[in-house]
Amino acid sequence: MTDLKSMTPEELAAYFKELGQPAFRAKQVFSWLNQGVESFNGMTNLPKDLRERLAKECRLFAPQIERKQVSRLDGTVKYLWRLWDGNCVETVLMRYHHGNTVCVSCQAGCNMGCVFCASTLGGKVRDLTAGEILDQIVFAQKDSGEKVSNIVMMGIGEPLDNFDNVLRFLELVNRPDGLNIGMRHISLSTCGLVDRIDKLASLGLQLTLSVSLHAPDDETRSRLMPVNRAVGVERLMETCRRYFETTGRRVSYEYAMIDGVNDSDGQADRLAALLRGQPAHVNLIPLNDVEESPLKPSRRVRQFQQRLESHGVTATVRRKLGSDIDASCGQLRRRQMRTGG
Length: 341
Ligand code: SAH
What we know:
single chain, alpha/beta, DNA polymerase, domain 1, TIM Barrel, 10-stranded mixed β-sheet, 12 strands, binds S-adenosyl-L-homocysteine
């Protein structure tokens, strides 16, 4: 079955040419897909026989809303979508002054094994296609009736572990005839797969790279993030410096604050030393409590931030949105899996 949703307008053009159709059919279909059309019959400007042919040859599945939660505190919406094969993934729509941001998932589950993260508990089931990543934005827009202007790839999964599909997604979402979201409005978060970071850098995209650092030393980081055992903090930082030199884009670092694990003044000092010599931004994230995990949120977030700033490091504390609705990604899917839905 042909996956039209993951095809670029050029690929669609080639496909319709093969079907003996005029070139504008590709444009019509691309436009329908970006509006969240649910069936070929809904593509009302296509001739009926073409619609029937497409229905035979192509897969067109709209993600179904399995659960939807709306925060009463700040209007954050969290979707749990059911995909064509029964897998579920989460998407969060956040409303900021500067526009609506959507946090998308790129895999069903995750293999990276970070000990504080709910997404990794059952391992990775499969990669999402480019179309399935795009659909999360298309259908969040359709359901909410609101335009999305920013994307963060911080949902379930490791984007650089699904490299080709993620890049294809970035191309699709960036298209002026599609959702037209500029690279500077997109953040991609990674646990730090260094070879892939280099590969991404070589493409020179203007997106923001966010690196989940979470600890300044190998002992702590390897304990929290198994991925660190193979590479280590030093090589990761060299790679990030190279990323900045190649792309000219400042790297952003995520740091989930965990009680008694990575929140001491000494660790703030080490973190500042680690980041010396590169323009960096540290995003301190209050840890989201994951039921299965013994790790607890730090009570020293402000002190840690001030300590970093005293060393001249820019650090912000991430505002917690949707804290009444399990809004950190992976938790809703996890609950669904536990209850055997
Ligand atoms: N795999 C990518 C992106 C997904 S997670 C990555 O590792 O960056 C997005 C961010 O949320 C990462 O920084 C991740 O470490 C963080 N995160 C995961 N679980 C968390 C939790 N319980 N509390 C706070 N942050 C968490």
